Amino acid sequence: MEMFYGGCEINAFGSLLENMGARTVSVSYMGLRRRIKHLDKIDLADRFGPDTLILLDSGCHTINSAPDKQYSDDELKEIAAEYDAFVERNIDRIHRFVEFDAQQLGAEWIAGRRNWGKEIVVWHEEDGIEALNTLAATHRSVGITGTSLGDQGLTPLLNRLIREHEVELYGLGMSKPEQMAAINWTGVTSTSWLSPAKFHDLIVWTGNELKRYPAKNRESGKRRHRTLFRDIGLDTDLIEDDDNTELLKLSAWSWMQQVAKLNGTTANTKIVANSANTPDEETAENDPEGVVTKRSRVRNFDLSTNQYKERSKRPIPGMAVTEKEESYTDPGGTRRTRKLQIVSSTSESLLNCTGCHMAGSCPEFDPGSECAFEIPADANSPEERKAQMNYLINRQFRRTAFGLVTEEVAGGYPDANVSREIGLYQKLLKSQHDMETEGFSLTIKANQSASATQAGAGVLSRIFGREPVAPSNTPELPPAVPQRSAQEQMGLPVMDAEIVGEEAGQ
Length: 506
Hints:
Blueprint lengths: L1 E4 L5 H10 L3 E5 H7 L8 H4 L5 E5 L2 H5 L8 H18 L5 E3 L8 H5 L7 E5 L5 H10 L2 E5 H4 L5 H11 L2 E5 L4 H6 L4 E4 L4 H5 L2 E4 L4 E4 L4 H7 L1 H6 L4 H5 L3 H20 L55 E11 L5 E11 L36 H28 L6 H21 L13 H5 L4 H6 L18 H7 L17
Parallel strand pairs: 1-8, 2-3, 3-4, 4-5, 5-6, 6-7, 7-8
Antiparallel strand pairs: 9-10, 11-12
C-alpha cells in the first residue's frame, strides 16, 4: 500500500516531504485553482522530482461536502473542462488522477466522462452496492471515500472485489490507521499528517502505534517524547517553541513509520536532513527509491527447518523464584508433601543507558551500561508498606506544590495537569487513611428451602430460637415491697398529707 501525502499543492509541504524521503504525494486541483491564477502554465514535472509518484485529486470532495452550492452547474462544467486540460498536459507525469466527481452534476454526467487509462473512478455510498460491483468489474482503479466506509461494514466486500476482479482500490481522504489496515488498498490519500498545522496537535510514532495528542495535551506529549525527538534528528528547542515545520517533520516521519508497519517493511529511523533527491554517503538510509527500504527478514524464518533451537529458561528480570516444601492431606486422607514456587522481586533490570529515555539528562549516563540506580526496598510487611506510602505522599505533595508555582509563573491560567496532580495527592491521602483505620465486619450467609419457610421455621428462629427464654441460672427476684413498708424499714419518716385538687378560677 502506498500512502499519498495530501496538501502538496502547497510547495512548502511538497518540498518538506521530498526532503524527508517521501516519494508519494497527492495534489488537489481545486487547491491549486484557489492559489494559482494561470494553471495553464503549471507543469507538475517542475514541482516534483522524477522519482516521485503524483496522485492528482480533482478536489471535488470540498464541493460535495459543502452545505450549500458553491457553483452553478455551468460553472462546474467549465471547471471540469479546465481540469481535463490540466490532466492532459501533465498525463505523463501523473501516476493516477481522480475523476471530476461533482455529485451536483448527476451520476449520468460523471459516468459519461470515464475514458482515461489512469483515472480513478469514485464510488459514493449513495450509489449503492450494485454500482460498486459494476465499477470494480469494469474499471482498473476505483476510489472509496473515507466517509463511505462508515463502520467498516464494507470491508469483507471490498477485499472480495479485489480478489475477484484484481481491481486497484484507492482510499480517498483516509485518516484512521485501522481503516488502512483492514483493506488491501493499492493506495490511500490522506491529509492527516498536516494535523499539527491545522489543529495544533502532536502526532508521534511511539514505536508500535501512532499516537495523537490533542492541543490541550500537546505539552505533556512533548515532555514525554523529548528524547525520541532528539534521537530521530529533530530540534527539540523548535519543538518546544511549537515550530510548525519541525512539528510537521515529526508528523510526516511518524506516518511513514505507520505505513511501513502496515506494509511489513522498515522505514527511515531518522529525519533526513538533506534533499531526498540527492542522497549522499552521510545519509545512506535515504533510499532514492522511496522511504520504504527492503523488507526485514530477521524474524521471518521457517520453523520447520533446523534453524529452531531450544534454550534453557530462566525467570524474567526482576523476578526471583524459591522453592518451599509444604505438607498436606490428599483426598484419601494420606499425608503428603509438595513443592511450592514462591515469587519475589529483585533489583535486576533490562534497563540500558543507550536506550533509556533519560539518556540526555541522567548524571550517570554511560553508553552500553546497565542502569546505575536501584530501589532497594520491598513491600512485604505492614510497616514497610506504611513507610512507602509516606514516601509517595511526600513526593506527590512536592510535585503538586511545584506545579502550583509553575502555574502562577505561567500567568495563573488553570493547568489541567496541576488539577490532576492535586486529585492524585488527595487519593493517596485517602488510601493512607484507609490503611490506618482498623475495622471489623462479619458476614453471615444462610440458605433454607421454601418448605421450611412455609412451616414457620425461619432462618433466625433456627439460629436463635422461636421464643425468648430466660437463662436457667438467673436467680428469682424477691416479691415487691410496698413503699411505706420500705421507708419504715429504712428508718425514713413517713408524712401524712391531704392532696387538694386545684379548683378552677383559683
